[in-house]
Amino acid sequence: MTTLLTNWHFMRVLRAGIAVWAFAEVWRTGDMLMLFFGSIFAIQAIFDIGCCGASGCAAPAPGKRGFDATPDAEEVSFKEVK
Fold first, then answer.
1. What pTM does this model have?
2. What is the DSSP string of the chain?
3. Is the pLDDT higher at 73 or at 28?
4. In angstroms, rounded to a whole number, what is the distance separating the alpha carbons of residues 69 and 24?
5. Between 66 and 74, the higher pLDDT residue
């Protein structure tokens, strides 16, 4: 319950606003396709997930190796050619 009520940032509030707008449009016009889109945005806002899951689109933190980095990589030196 604490996760649902804390850490509300701009994108989470925006998704919640879009969901409320979509649900209001469903109530006003009866367009059931808008109910699908409103549900998607509501789920994203409630559980704080984006297009790729929780922090799925975030870049890795600096200094940490990615999943494709080799642990025995050597430092490459370059020589300037004039």
1. 0.60
2. -HHHHS---HHHHHHHHHHHHHHHHHHHH--HHHHHHHHHHHHHHHHT-BBTBTTTTSPPPTT---TT--TTPPPP------
3. 28
4. 48
5. 74
Return the half-sphere exposure (C-beta side, CA atoms, 13 A cut-off) of residue 52. Answer: 5
Range 32-40 contact pairs with CB under 8 angstroms and sequence separation of 24 or more:
none
Report how far residue 38's alpha carbon sits from residue 32's, in angstroms, rounded to the nearest whole number: 10
The answer to whether residues 18 and 44 touch, using CB atoms and an 8 Å cutoff, is no
Query: Directed axis angle between helix 10-29 and helix 32-47, to 10°?
Result: 160
Burial (0-12, 13-18, 19+ Cβ within 10 Å), 28: exposed
Looking from the CA of 58 toward its CB, the CA atoms found within 13 Å total 9
